[in-house]
Amino acid sequence: MTEKRIACIGAGYVGGPTMAVIAMKCPQYKVTVADISEARIAAWQTDDLPIYEPGLLEVVQAGRGRNLFFSTDIPGAIREADIVFVSVNTPTKTFGDGAGKAADLQYWERVAREILRVSTSPKIVVEKSTLPVKTAHIMETILNANNNGVKFEVISNPEFLAEGTAIQDLLDPDRVLIGSRETPSGLKARQEIVDIYANWVPRERILTSNVWSAELSKLAANAFLAQRISSINSISALCERTEANVKEVARAIGMDARIGPRFLNASVGFGGSCFKKDILNLVYICESYGLQEVARYWQAVLDINEYQEKRFVRAMIRGMFNTIVGKRIALFGFAFKADTSDTRESPAIYVARDLLEEQAHVVVTDPKALENARKDLAGYAENLEFVEDPYEAARGAHAVAIMTEWDVYRSLDWERIYRSMEKPAFLFDGRDIVDYKHVYDLGFNVYPLGSPAMKHF
Ligand SMILES: NC(=O)c1ccc[n+]([C@@H]2O[C@H](COP(=O)([O-])OP(=O)(O)OC[C@H]3O[C@@H](n4cnc5c(N)ncnc54)[C@H](O)[C@@H]3O)[C@@H](O)[C@H]2O)c1
Questions:
Q1: Interatomic CA distance for residues 93 and 343, integer angstroms
Q2: At residue 238, does pLDDT exceed 90?
Q3: How far is the C-alpha of 377 from the C-alpha of 373, rounded, in Å?
Q4: What is the pLDDT of residue 1?
Q5: Helix pair 211-242, 246-254: axis angle to 10 deg
Q6: 280, 365, 326: which is closest to 102 by C-alpha?
Q7: How many Cα atoms within 13 Å fall on the side-chain side of residue 411?
Q8: What is the percent of the chain with per-residue pLDDT over 90, rounded to a whole number?
């Protein structure tokens, strides 16, 4: 018997995997994921899923057609559900007041109004998307602006999964956070959501809080994670000038139990759909509460990220004798991190654009993200190629730049690559994954991130 009927509006990187895991772990629930995008819903119904995530297909296959359904019938999914998760996109606003900083809540509000329009029975509405603190208040105001007697409770249940490890993160989360109003009906709704996760998550890892803390915790978590990356990246610039090695520094500081070893890999910068937009949103919220110093503090995390991308390109131009016009440069990786096809805000986009503006000939290769890369660089017709095989991409190139830490790039035959390249051959490692001494001995001029360049001239 179906114990709960769950709908999820938004079948993207969050909605799809989270609901697939709930359906797999809770066969007694019926889970329907609905989206306005017909193409996305159609793809969820095949084995060629709209997103790549290790292990996702198996989880989808376990529930699909049994208790996991994908649909474009949004009103139908809402109407029959007791619980409606909303995981639509909340991008940075591009127009009007708050443009470039505030979250654009139009998609969210549209869903709230749709829920209000079609509902004939009470529902718990769960904020799964990342939203500005205090959004639940707006949602409650919209949802309760009805005179048909239907009651709604708004719960904040932000998603902490990381792309690339989404399934593992969902199956074995560090914590699940569920925030509600602390009224009797709010606490009852909170318990309903706790009961879902309690099917597989140990109770001590299911945290409950007030609704504002839950909303803010997600923004704060992303800001703290990004801050660690910017911190180590800022140190990487200093290492390159001082003959220190950022890996050694990261290891030394990471062994301090108060600091910890994770998120201390220097890189060409963080990407992904969330860090930048969520920090911009945090900055905007702080500014709107008059907290200018706090806003400036978090803005600096973004400034360092941009600085890191820019100085990577600058090092390429300077290293290659101050001109890259017409030079073939192979970008190894385009996804914003390994094990995902997602390229949103990938540093590779900015690096590729800067190189193209410098009139280099850019060749992009990536094991999973070439389709997205083509879309990201759609405005550039000339001097741009997309090649699946990294060896082919590097053939005849003056330089290889590693943009994504894909495992396949850790075990490449660098001798073979070196032989096929123009000389002098350059390797710019934006992810710090190559054995520098080895490739230097092969003949490469190597620019590791976070330690001085190793040149043969
Ligand atoms: N991607 C991540 O790693 C991640 C992690 C945690 C939280 N989040 C947050 O989760 C939210 C969703 O992120 P995502 O990466 O899944 O986005 P996404 O763009 O992949 O998916 C959003 C989906 O919502 C659909 N949609 C938009 N408006 C709709 C409407 N009115 N009705 C029905 N469907 C609609 C879109 O068609 C799209 O398929 C964002 O707020 C994001 O910040 C993302």
A1: 19
A2: yes
A3: 6
A4: 67
A5: 140
A6: 280
A7: 2
A8: 97
pLDDT tens digits, residue range 241-288? 999 999 999 999 999 999 999 999 999 999 999 999 999 999 999 999
For atom 39 of ligand 1, the residue with the nearest CA is 12
Task: Name the residue type at position 356.
Answer: L
DSSP string, 305-322: HHHHHHHHHHHHHHHTTT
Residues 6+ apart with CB under 8 A from 297: none
Amino acid present at 248: E
pLDDT in tens, 157-202: 999 999 999 999 999 999 999 999 999 999 999 999 999 999 999 9
274 is catalytic: yes
Candidate of 74, 87, 160, 344 to mutate for ligand 1, largest count of ligand atoms within 8 Å of Cβ:
87
Give how far Cα 204 sits from Cα of 174, 211, 214, 355, 436, Å: 10, 19, 17, 50, 45
Ligand 1 centre to CA of 87 (Å) is 5
pTM, two decimals, is 0.95
Q: What is the distance in A from the centroid of ligand 1 to the CA of 423?
A: 46
